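Re-run with default settings, no changes from the original entry. Doing this only to confirm the output is reproducible before filing.
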Amino acid sequence: MTTFQKTFRLNNDTTIPAVGFGTYLISQEDAKNAVRAAILNGYRHIDTAEVYENEEAVGAGIREGIEEASLTRGDIFVTTKLWPGHAAWGQQLKNEEQTIASFDASLERLGLDYVDLYLIHSPHGGPERLSQWRGLRELKRLGKARSIGVSNFSEKHLQEIKGTGVLMPEANQIELHPWSQKPGLIAYMKENGIAPIAYSSLAPLSTWRVEPGQDSAKTAEMKVSDGQLKSMAEKYGVTEAQLLLRWGVQNGYAVLPKSLNVDRMRQNIDLGGFTIDEEDLVAMRAMDRGDGLAWSIGDPTRVD
C-alpha cells in the first residue's frame, strides 16, 4: 500500500490532506476503533460533525491513534461542523452566541484544545446564517479553529457572506462526484479562493448506502450500474472507489471516504499509483446529472 499524502492549501497557515476519513453514519460504538484504525493506516484528516452524534468516540479514536502511531496533535487535521438548526424540523436557528457555545460543546466532546477546520454544516440557518458566520470568525480570532468554512452552501449563500465585506469561507464541503459536479459553483469558489472539499464521492457505486437506515435520494434505477466506471477502473487496475476518489483529487478536491473495513480503508488512501487520462476525464464529465444524492430531502445547496 502507498499512503497518499498530498495536501491542498486553505490559508497561509493551514493545509488540508487530500484524503481524509469521513465518519458520517459511524455509530458512537464503532467510531473510536474506526478512527484509530484510520490513523494507523495513514489517514491524517478526520471529519466529524455535531449532528453525527459521535464526536466523543471520534475524539477518543484520535487520541488513541496519535499515541499508537507516535504522532502529535499537530500531525492530525480535525474537522467538525456546527448544526445551524432547521426551522422546518421545529429547531431553533442558532445565533452568534449559540454558535460559539455549540463549538465549545463539540470541542469538549472531542477532548481537543482546537480544531483545524470548523464548518457551518448547511445553509438551513436562513436569517441567522450571517450571525453564525460571525461566530465562526470569532472562533478563528480566538485561535480555537485554525480555519473556518461552510458546507452545502451555494453561490447565492456565499454571495450573501461576500456582500457584507467580511472574511470569506476558506472551504465549502459539498457533495461532489461524476454524477454531481456543480461546475458553476466550483468556478465561483475558485474565483473567490474557497477550497472545495468533496463528500459522498462514492455515491455512483451500486454498493453506496445500501444498509437499512442509510437514506438518500438515490432511486432504484440509479442503483443499477451501467458498467462504465467498472471498465475504467479495470483499465487502471484499481477499484471503482479508488477511481472515484482519484477523480476528486485530480480535480483539486479533498475527499472523505468512509469504511469500517480495514482493507478498504487502505485501498481508499492508496491513490498515488495512477492518473486518470484525459479521455476518461472527458467521459466522466459527461456523467453529470445535476443535484447531489446524499440528502433524502434534496440537495441542500438548493435551500433558499
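The CA atoms of residues 242 and 268 lie 6 Å apart. The radius of gyration is 18 Å.
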